Amino acid sequence: MKKIYFKTLLIGLAAISAVSCSDQSDEITNILFNRNFSPIGLEAKVRNRTNVELSWNVADGVTQYNIEVFANDSLTFAGTPQKTFSITPDKVPFLVTDLDGETKYSFRVMALDGNEARNSKWSGAFAKTESEQIFMPVAEEDIQAKQVTLRWPAGQSADVITLTPGDIVYTITASDIAAGAATITGLQPETKYTAIMTRNGKTRGKVSFTTGVYLEPTDILVSPGDDLSQMIADAPEGYRLVIDAGEYGIKGADTDYGGSVTITKAIAIKGLRQGSYPVIKGRFKVEAPLSLDQVILDGFGTDGGQTFDFTGANTISEFSLTNSQVKNYTKGLMYINQPILVDKITIQGNIISKIECSGGDFIDSRKGGYNQLTFKNNTVYESAKERDFFRMDDASSSVTASPVIVVDHNTLYNVGSGGANYRIFYIRFAGNKITFTNNLVVGTNHKRGFTNQKSTDAEPTLDNNVYFNTENLISAGATADATIAWFDTNGTVLDPQFKDAANGDFTVGNDNVKDLKAGDPRWIK
Question: How many Å apart are CA 368 and CA 315, to the nearest integer?
Answer without folding.
Answer: 10
